[in-house]
Amino acid sequence: MTTAQIDRPILLSVRNLKKYFPVRRGLLQRVVGYVKAVDDISFDIYEGEALGLVGESGCGKTTTGRAILQLQPATAGTVLLEGQELTRLRGEALRRIRPKMQIIFQNPYSSLNPRMTIGRALIEPMTVHGVARGKAAEERASELMSLVGLNPYFVNRFPSEFSGGQRQRIGIARALSLNPQFIVCDEPISSLDVSIQSQIVNLLKRLQRDLKLTYLFISHDLSMVRFVCDRTAVMYLGKIVELGESDAVNRRPLHPYTQALLAAAPVADPDLEATRTRIVLEGDVPSPLNPPAGCHFSTRCPRVMDVCRRVEPPFKEVEPGHQVACHLY
Amino acid sequence: MTLNSPQGKQNTPLLDVQDLEVAFFTKDGVVAAVNGISYRLGHGDILGIVGESGSGKSVSSLALLRLIPEPPARILGGRALFADGTGAPRDLLKMAPEELRGVRGRQIAVIFQDPMTSLNPVMTIGNQIAEAIRVNLGQGGRAARKRAIEVLSHVGIPRAAERLDDYPHQFSGGMRQRVMIAMAISCEPKLLIADEPTTALDVTIQAQIVDLVKRLQAEMGMAVIWITHDLGVIARLAHRVNVMYAGSIVEMAPIREIFRAPSHPYTLGLLNSVPRPDLPRDAELAYIEGAPPDMVRLPSGCAFHPRCAYRRERCLSEKPPLLPIDAEHSAACWYWEEVRAASARATPPQGPAT
Questions:
Q1: Which of A257, B68, B208, B298 is deepest in the core (most CB within 10 A)?
Q2: Of the partner residues A56, A252, A277, the one whose CB lies closest to the CB of residue B202
Q3: pTM of the model
Q4: Under CATH, which number does the domain A3-115+158-254 receive?
């Protein structure tokens, strides 16, 4: 199963990525500690692949996406896009590479300028990056609208005249306006009504296939990630704890956290709900300001051992293409 | 105290809502939020109310306690007979403010989606719970504090006595929701209305809260109305379900029925739009066309018709009432038999092989 992936070239390579946010206190605003939002993660994304990044709020999945796109400077580590190192790029060099990588935001209400017509919102990135201007840009804008299932006739309307699902389509069209290769989809459906979510998911999948796009798909919904993504990475408290083929991660989850996450996600089937094994995790996610020693999950892990509280487990491959950071393996 | 003569109570439902109608009078027009809904809730029942934003699921429930802003909202009609077991059922919608105050908290308690905005940030948890106990049960001082510790430990807050003097910001989101639940159950209400209490929480915390409410319900015998957009949570918790769309109940059924034989096109569409674990990745996910309607200008006839794959002429002009399928299952669709046949053909869902 994994060979299909390995045959493809690597588009994006993340190595030992860290993003720490300093915490300042007191009159002199001295740094008293760091929130280790992303703490030494490494993975590759193959060309044309959708990699899912799953985890609960505060696990660092959104920060990972932003650090990759250089929207926030990384504290340490490297990000290679087609072999080009991004973390050292500044100014014009960084600006030139931006069209290749775009983002679709969670909330289509706050990510669009309410005073800008849809047409202008779509044309602006094209003129800024010199992709197209004037008549050509206008034509491209209506092309993009048709592509995402919006009537180009509405090009002069404002975001407030559209529903949530339509606004997310506009956000997608805007991300596509610069012909990117790589798109970070940051919880693109979680603010939408259930009946609209599947429309947007189908659209994202169709665009990926037709335009040969590569996605980093960030979500807290494991079932949706399994459906959209070839491979799934699970994050907990700044670390990737498991990464593998989506089907393998869902059917044979290795890490106790992945198992708990799958068990906690409700399934729309009362019989299954009544019979399936339940792992209810005790307590809350610890503060990333002061994560537990050893394995970060050790404070909530139902299978915790002595070693887990002392030694951080290495991230290793235990089945072909299936990596996990856990002392059980 | 909640379980005396349970047999006698079975006949009169705890809550009997009839033709409830609520509208919001805004500058953009009249928002038809709740359009004549009727349902019954038995003692100790768990009813799930499922719907999307704007479906009227919250408004219809909060209106029972007049917890909606009036104006712009106005209850246009209907009755909500509440039988607390002490006398003849009383209509919540006709109660004087003073009488209703005796019901709120004491007989019917509510927990909301965002516990941070429901708790007072400058008041300790202990004082807030004690206040609820003092107001509702008339116990003060030591007794109230003792009861607060009791309910906090009951909802699974470790070292409850020590945490009594903490402020809300010192609790995590999941713990804050436990505090809200503690406050709600402190007076042993007959009915708990839970308005999307886990929507803001992570799945592992959501599972804890759902299990907690299930446990409390079994121990205390209270009835629960659980409002959500998540059919999965309902599957785990509820006995019965009302599915709402555009201010109306479109389907009403026992929990297993709604998943086994959904008979309204909207319910079927909702169930199919969640990817099942065995759905191939190259497949297209089923979806419902279009978007929820503008509640100021509801479509004619059946409000779902513009999005419905089963619509015919009749649906454009005649609004279907809830048509009985069997004693406990009904659907507001002229062509429910076709929908039911289609849902029976669909493969039964399979869970992850864990």
A1: A257
A2: A56
A3: 0.85
A4: 3.40.50.300
